Amino acid sequence: MRFIELRSDTATEPTQAMRDAMYNARVGDDVYGDDPTMRELEEYAPKLVGKEAALFVPSGTFGNQLSLFTHCKRGSEVILGDDCHIVVHEVGAASVIAGVQLRTLRTNAGEMDPVEVRRTIRTEKNIHYPETGLICMENAYSNGRVLSLKNMSEIYNAAREYNIPVHLDGARVFNAASYLGVDAREITKYCDSVMFCLSKGLCAPVGSMLAGSRSFIEKARKCRKLMGGGLRQAGFLAAAGLVALKDMVGRLGEDRENAIFLGEELSKIPGIKVNMKDIQINMVFFDMSETGYDSAKLVEEFYKKGIKINPEEGGKMRFVTNYWVKKQDIPYIVNTFKEILRKNCN
């Protein structure tokens, strides 16, 4: 049975081209640095984001936490949004791995106020204060919104003024670039390091990249080993990553178009409230509280119809389009939703 996968664009299966590339990949021991396919990926990937070097990591969370671990001294402070992925969805790893304190700021649809960021930077040398070790931004944001280049540049300039590095959680940076109509390098020029995923929307089965200066990546490589991320014949994974970056980045606009279509159709269902202005990448967030239908029950009913979804989080439902969700699937998704609600009302 074919399932329509709406839980996340992380749940996508690799394309046939990726399967073929993985099967035929030339490999070696990457810890020794002699895996030719991994070397090719780590030479190709940083060019896409305008950085000197890059490092393969098992996941996006691993990449973000490796960045904090590499940039920061233990006990230093990291400034970031209170609703960003590092804070909300990474299991408090920053306190365990990097040993840092997170100084969270309220955001406006993911954007921190540059004035507030400046005010929060520890400029005073005081025996009672930690040092500001890093500022983190996220683009595209976990709520599906895309940060403006103006906001990013203002925060980055403030950081440079005080010689503080900036890390970008760019898990879906290519989605953000597609929305803004710019090359991804126009976004990543406002950070010193960036993590971007190969497995979110790009269909690779495993992996993310951490990119930055050559010296930063050399340091991060040793920290990666400490964290257990030294992989052996990793070229099988790198082969899929190369296909993801070369073949899949350019089609992300299709996912957003399908998300807009899905959002428009869902908004026609009584009791469903979709904020269309928030559909900036491939995510559709909506409120179904007025229907009175339990989201956990909805998960069960959708599954019976061959559709995988997650229950609500924070009062919001999220459907995510991806390569394997085609435009022709959307009427079936919407009609299934209508039928489930209709049975409940009767």
Give a brief rundown of this model.
With 346 residues, the protein is of the alpha/beta class. It has helices spanning 16-23, 36-48, 60-71, 85-88, 93-98, 114-120, 149-161, 173-180, 185-188, 214-226, 235-248, 252-266, 295-304, 330-345; strands spanning 4-5, 53-57, 77-81, 101-105, 132-138, 166-169, 193-197, 208-212, 273-274, 283-287, 307-308, 317-320.
Head-to-tail CA distance between termini: 29 Å
Judged by helices, strands and strand pairing, the structural class is alpha/beta
CATH fold topology of the largest domain: Aspartate Aminotransferase, domain 2
CATH superfamily of the largest domain: Type I PLP-dependent aspartate aminotransferase-like (Major domain)
Rg value: 21 Å
- Write down the domain tally: 2
Task: Chart the SSEs and their pairings.
Blueprint lengths: L3 E2 L10 H8 L12 H13 L4 E5 L2 H12 L5 E5 L3 H4 L4 H6 L2 E5 L8 H7 L11 E7 L10 H13 L4 E4 L3 H8 L4 H4 L4 E5 L10 E5 L1 H13 L8 H14 L3 H15 L6 E2 L8 E5 L7 H10 L2 E2 L8 E4 L9 H16 L1
Parallel strand pairs: 1-11, 3-4, 3-5, 5-6, 6-7
Antiparallel strand pairs: 2-8, 7-8, 9-10, 10-12
Helix pairs in contact: 1-11, 2-11, 3-10, 6-7, 12-14
Folded structure, characterized:
This protein has 346 residues and is α/β, with parallel strands linked by helices. The protein folds into two domains: 4-9 and 251-345, Aspartate Aminotransferase, domain 1 (Alpha-Beta Complex), CATH 3.90.1150; 16-248, Type I PLP-dependent aspartate aminotransferase-like (Major domain) (Aspartate Aminotransferase, domain 2), CATH 3.40.640.10. It is built from 14 helices and twelve strands. The strands form three sheets. It has a seven-stranded mixed beta sheet, with helices on both faces. Strand 9 and strand 10 form a beta hairpin. The model has no long low-confidence stretch (mean pLDDT 97).
